[in-house]
Design a protein that fits this description.
Length: about 90
């Protein structure tokens, strides 16, 4: 019974290794790590600015609104943010 269990475990390990080598991108060697290294992390402020820019573009596209009114809406939104978020964005209270 012990020998049978050992053989089953060995077969399972070989199948798991084969499965990983066929599906896991980390097995591509250094290519996986080169792709990951090239991705730059953006800061919270940059991500928030990107979201605000996309919001402005979407509002301009779907609403008839002047640039001044749009900027006033964004400023009102930012003024309502909690202090800890303003601190992360380096905005004044």
């Amino acid at each position: 019974m012990v020998a049978h269990t050992s053989i089953v475990f060995c077969r399972y390990i070989m199948l798991a290794l084969e499965n990983r080598e066929n599906k896991d991108p980390r097995t591509l060697g250094d290519l996986f790590y080169y792709c990951c290294d090239e991705l730059k992390d953006i800061s919270f402020a940059e991500a928030f600015q990107l979201v605000l820019t996309m919001l402005k573009n979407t509002l301009r596209k779907h609403l008839t609104i002047s640039d001044g009114a749009l900027q006033d809406m964004i400023n009102e939104f930012i003024s309502c943010l909690p202090a800890f978020l303003k601190g992360r964005l380096q905005l004044s209270s």
